[in-house]
Amino acid sequence: MEKTPILEVKDLKTYFYLEGNKVAKAVDGVDFQIYPGETVALVGESGSGKSITSLSIMKLIDKPGKIEGGSILFSGTDLISLTEKQMTKIRGNDMAMIFQEPMTALNPVFTIGNQIMESLRKHQKISKKEAYIKAVELLKIVGFPRAEETIREYPHQLSGGMRQRAMIAIALSCNPKLLIADEPTTALDATIQAQILTLLDEMKEKFHMSILLITHDLGIVAEHADRVMVMYGGQIVESTSVERLFENPLHPYTRGLLESLPSIDREVERLGAIKGIVPPAFNFPKGCRFSDRCPYAMEECHQSNPKLLEIETNHQARCFLYKESV
Amino acid sequence: MYQYIFRRILVFIPMLFALTIIVFALLKAAPGDPYSKILDPDLDPSVLEEAREAKGYNDPIPVQYFRWLSMAAQGDFGESIRYVGRDVSELILSRLPNTLYLGVFSLFVTLIVAIPIGIYSARNPYSPLDYFATGFGFFGLAVPNFFFGLVAIYLFAIQLGWFPSQGYISVSNSGGFGGFLDRLHHLVLPGLTLGLASTASYMRYMRSEVLTVLGSDYIRTARAKGLTERTVLYKHTLRNALIPIITLFGFEFGAIVSGAVITEGVFTFPGIGMLLLESIGNRDYPVIMALTLMFGLFILVGNLIADILYSIVDPRIRYD
């Protein structure tokens, strides 16, 4: 895939300034690219910084958080340098986002139609009538058979899965080049999850967009992503294609995640678990951020933080275990 | 939605009926009657007894109640005992406009001050103005009306002489636009005194509501849609933040009329609050009953309006 990336994030740093002069480095030097038409998964535990990464790309970081460094090149423009006003022309237009909680992500006092048309009318110079026609069409595309009625309904009249479909309709309204899906199915039942993810796959084809899929569910990654980045402690610790990740995980953290999944091929007494919890972002261990939980931790792991290096072709990992193989 | 409003109005009728029973029972439970205050030693007690008999104070209580109710339903609350020969309704109507001016003025000032400051505080929490507003909020809720009124009279009427200390109109008031300004001038001190506590509570409510709504998921969605901060604030946030404010408004609506009792007393402002105070002093039963009923009615109407506004603002209520 030697095309130009649609999104290129370089050395992104988003810090939160907490009480007591504590600085939480929620995102600390993240680099990645997303190419047109691909689905890239960003995987990690709660608190690893994946949601903050996505909100940083949208420049929706609120106080006490701040994007402290790096660049976010989106179709060639550096979003960091844009003013808030210029950003409002990109958000919801070229770049759209859907969220984890469909139950609360829609405004309860406006109709579904109002919320779709609002986005259309903001970004495209079209009349109310045209927006209405477009909104009905969008609702049909995302799977509302009675779209003409749904458009007049309020969020509380829809189920969780239906609300997420409505969110997707809003996100797709202006044909975005990039859709950021932040745990889009975490709050839904398993059967609805599959439907929503399949819908996203179809929409990606139909609208020729790229998807940044944020999830903690490796099962979703295996089925719906092309490439995957594993995040830990505000940094990417491993990045490769989905096939490679499942065949040959390099980073001990990734291995830990995979061992914690049940598998049909392997028979085990107990599923593996990574000991400990994600350290808070204002108190990472010295050296490698995974060192205090890592079963392979060596002396130098406690001294300095390894760099993200290309261990094999198109397969990067941030670990001293592979120092020699570079 | 119309069905909801219709049902809500149906509920209003038994509540009003219950209110009349409570008002009547409370007054009957209080010791004494209009004639027990007359302590003239030369007066033969049988004269007072005759007067009681003539006014029907010796009839069985249910009879008295239904007589009062059927007359009240026709808008006839009888004659005042203190102001002999004047109809209660006419007496109240002559005072009501003053109280309404005062209430509307005070509510207007309250909303103009409290809502913008509440929004500002929520958008800039822990800013100097927010701290000031918080301090003012505690002050407004903690300081009793009558005390603030007295201090205001001392400072702004006696020491500085900016505003009149009492009354609702100057003797020289000759109507027209000048007369209107003169009335406004008289409204300033009592109006601000009356609005102090409600300004403080509206401000606190507004701050906490806007702050909560700004942190909600759908506001993040609205921003992610590329809406400007203006649209996010005035369309998405305010509409949701105002829902609880409406409840407060339902209570305040009744308070426009009844809450002025103390303030009117302090400023000797001739509204119905003053009338109530006088009537209680004189045991002017017909007036007290009519006023208490009216205050209750205003609270009920205020809540009715609040519920109807709710159903307009919040679609989740409409379809229950």
UniProtKB/TrEMBL annotation, chain A:
Keywords: ATP-binding, Cell membrane, Membrane, Nucleotide-binding, Transport. It comes from the Bacteria. InterPro entries: AAA+_ATPase (IPR003593), ABC_Ni/Peptide_Import (IPR050388), ABC_transporter-like_ATP-bd (IPR003439), ABC_transporter-like_CS (IPR017871), Oligopep_ABC_C (IPR013563), P-loop_NTPase (IPR027417). CDD domains: ABC_NikE_OppD_transporters. GO terms for biological process: peptide transport. Residues 7-258 form the ABC transporter domain. GO terms for cellular component: plasma membrane. Gene3D superfamilies: P-loop containing nucleotide triphosphate hydrolases (3.40.50.300). Pfam families: ABC_tran (PF00005), oligo_HPY (PF08352). It is a peripheral membrane protein. It is found in: Cell membrane. GO terms for molecular function: ATP binding; ATP hydrolysis activity. Belongs to the ABC transporter superfamily. This is ABC transporter ATP-binding protein.
Automatic annotation (TrEMBL), chain B:
It is found in: Cell membrane. Signal peptide: none annotated. The keyword Transcription does not apply. This is ABC transporter permease. GO terms for cellular component: plasma membrane. The keyword Membrane applies. Keywords: Cell membrane, Membrane, Transmembrane, Transmembrane helix, Transport.
